[in-house]
């Protein structure tokens, strides 16, 4: 790690601005989590529905006396200017029975309108994409924003990885923070559980189970992964949308960026030259810091995992090609 710069008490203070574009369920829940975290001193909300953004900003401002000091306002996209991070959560969400890929055409059209405005207002910031299908839209954002790839991040499988760790923790009766396991590939139906490096406090899961006198059953593991992969469908069927966990994941990514934590998180970034995968946005464990994507970790995979990742890359590539043919490069 490089040494921090010397503190200059006379240097002008720079407020830490975070912009949120799209203040529906995901964007506004993220803004609330961000406000409670105290990470940002300025939070600007932008939405095609200006009244909605205004209402969210007012409601959030009224939480400030219970939370942390911050300025919250609704504004045009040009207010992304100077934001350290702009989170984009604008666009259509899945309805019951819809896949994330069903949203691609509608949301790609919205991104073609939005992203150039964000990049023009804020060429030096980081864009964090949450809208689905997140890997395809993060790739599109990278292509049309002109920003370097390390400053365009998709929330990717940060949510799936949290679900995976939580379900494993529940099964093995440990704190999810002691479970280290990743979902790689697309945030979607072809995602890949990386069992080969999954561990609980450094012990391979089978060894942990044996030491704890617990059964270690492949059928249980398969069910844990299926519940991870299908969690969004299960939640949307019950309550119509998912937003708390993804919002918490977005806050975690923003924290790693603003505090230059160099935390390893499963997020989506431009992957090249990896098990035959090239020029596609997918999730791998990634070091995230002030520059955005600092490094992707090239996990050694089992043959089955590598083949699964090849399939997930194929799915992404097809969707990406479909929008790329229409995207100005
Ligand atoms: P929502 O319908 O509640 O909100 C979407 C918002 O986008 C609305 O307020 C709408 O006015 C706004 N919007 C639409 N077009 C716009 C434009 N051109 N400019 C600015 N704002 C615009 O949806 P939601 O539940 O908040 O979901 C938002 C997106 O996040 C969806 O694509 C959803 O699938 C995705 N999502 C991603 C994850 C993840 O893990 N990445 C998890 C949950 C949801």
What can you see in these coordinates?
The protein has 329 residues and is an alpha/beta fold. The strands form 4 sheets. The chain has a 6-stranded parallel β-sheet with strand order 3-2-1-4-5-6, with helices on both faces. A 3-stranded antiparallel β-sheet has the order 7-10-11. The protein has a 3-stranded antiparallel β-sheet with strand order 12-13-14. A hairpin with a 2-residue loop joins strand 13 and strand 14.
User: Quick one: overall form?
Assistant: globular
Rg for CA atoms: 20 Å
End-to-end gap:
34 Å
Low-confidence stretches: none
How many H/I helices?
A: 10
Can you give me a brief rundown of this structure?
The protein has 329 residues and is α/β, with parallel strands linked by helices. 41% of the residues lie in helices and 18% in strands.
Topology:
Layout: E1 17-21, H1 25-37, E2 42-46, H2 50-61, E3 71-74, E4 85-88, H3 104-121, E5 126-129, H4 134-145, E6 152-154, H5 158-172, E7 179-180, E8 183-184, E9 192-193, E10 199-200, E11 203-204, H6 205-211, H7 218-229, H8 231-239, H9 244-258, E12 263-271, E13 280-289, E14 292-296, H10 303-324
Parallel strand pairs: 1-2, 1-4, 2-3, 4-5, 5-6
Antiparallel strand pairs: 7-10, 8-9, 10-11, 12-13, 13-14
Helix pairs in contact: 1-9, 3-4, 4-10, 5-7
């Amino acid at each position: 790690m490089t040494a921090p710069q010397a503190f200059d008490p006379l240097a002008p203070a720079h407020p830490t601005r975070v912009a949120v574009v799209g203040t529906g369920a995901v964007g506004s829940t993220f803004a609330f989590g961000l406000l409670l975290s105290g990470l940002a001193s300025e939070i600007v909300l932008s939405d095609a529905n200006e009244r909605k953004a205004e209402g969210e900003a007012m409601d959030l401002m009224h939480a400030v006396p219970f939370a942390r000091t911050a300025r919250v306002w609704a504004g045009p996209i040009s207010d992304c200017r100077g934001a350290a991070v702009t989170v984009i959560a604008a666009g259509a969400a899945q309805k019951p029975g819809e896949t994330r890929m069903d949203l691609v055409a509608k949301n790609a059209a919205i991104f073609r309108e939005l992203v150039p405005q964000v990049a023009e207002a804020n060429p030096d910031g980081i864009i964090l994409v949450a809208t689905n299908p997140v890997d395809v839209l993060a790739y599109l954002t990278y292509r049309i924003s002109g920003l370097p790839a390390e400053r365009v991040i998709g929330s990717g499988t940060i949510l799936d990885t949290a679900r995976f760790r939580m379900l494993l923790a529940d099964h093995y009766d440990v704190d999810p923070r002691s479970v280290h396991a990743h979902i790689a590939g697309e945030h979607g139906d072809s995602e890949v559980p990386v069992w080969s490096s999954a561990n609980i406090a450094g012990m391979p899961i089978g060894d942990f189970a044996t030491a704890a006198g617990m059964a270690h059953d492949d059928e249980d593991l398969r069910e844990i992964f299926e519940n991870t992969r299908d969690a969004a469908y299960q939640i949307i069927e019950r309550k119509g949308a998912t937003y708390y966990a993804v919002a918490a994941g977005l806050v975690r990514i923003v924290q790693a960026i603003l505090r230059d934590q160099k935390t390893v998180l499963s997020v989506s970034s431009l992957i090249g030259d990896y098990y035959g995968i090239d020029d596609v946005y997918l999730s791998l464990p990634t070091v995230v810091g002030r520059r955005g994507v600092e490094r992707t970790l090239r996990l050694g995979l089992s043959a089955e995992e590598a083949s699964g990742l090849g399939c997930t890359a194929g799915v992404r590539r097809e969707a990406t090609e479909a929008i790329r043919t229409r995207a100005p490069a």
